[in-house]
Every structure is written in structure tokens, then in C-alpha cells.
Amino acid sequence: MEAASIYKYIVILLLVLILLSLTKGLHFLIKDDDKSFNMVKSLTVRIVLSILLFILLFFGFYMGWLSPNHT
């Protein structure tokens, strides 16, 4: 398998993990009555995953695996 195709699967996986963390944070916002740090932990995980995705996108542009579509 090529590195570019593995890269695309990693990006898709990160997007799914970000969405899961977002829904988990929403769940804690709605259902969690006590003052626990579950929502803060979920937000922290989502921010770290988003920064990692941003760095991977820059790396993909640098390596030539991603390119803008000029029309």
C-alpha cells in the first residue's frame, strides 16, 4: 500500500475521532450533573486531535500527497 493512501486513511480516522470526541463532549454537557472534568477532558482530546490533523494536512501538502484543485 502506498504512503499516500495510508495518509488519507489516517486523516479520515482523525476526522472520525474528532467527531466522536465532539459528541462525547455534548453528552457530558447535557447529561453530566456533577462538576466533573469529563467535558474538559473531551475538549482537550478534541483540540489535540484537531492540531494533529492540521499538522498532518500541512505535511501532506509538503509531501505532494494533497494538492489544491485549480479550475
3D structure, described in words:
The protein starts with a helix and ends in an 8-residue tail after the last helix. The longest helix has 29 residues, at 3-31. It has a domain at 14-29 and 37-63. Helix 1 (3-31) runs antiparallel to helix 2 (38-63). With 71 residues, it is mainly alpha-helical. The chain contains two helices and no strands.
Could you give a short description of this structure?
With 71 residues, this protein is an all-alpha fold. The chain contains 2 helices and no strands. The two termini are 30 Å apart.
Q: What is the CA-atom radius of gyration, in angstroms?
A: 16 Å
Tell me the strand percentage band.
Answer: under 5%
- The average pLDDT is 89
Low-pLDDT stretches are none
- Percent of residues in helices comes to over 70%
Largest sheet: none
Silhouette: elongated
| Termini Cα gap | 30 Å
Structural class: mainly alpha
Annotation, overall tally of beta strands: 0
Order of helices and strands: HH
Number of helices: 2
SSE arrangement:
Blueprint: H1 3-31, H2 38-63
Helix pairs in contact: 1-2
Considering the chains and any ligands shown, give keywords for the structure.
mainly alpha; elongated; 71 residues; 0% strand
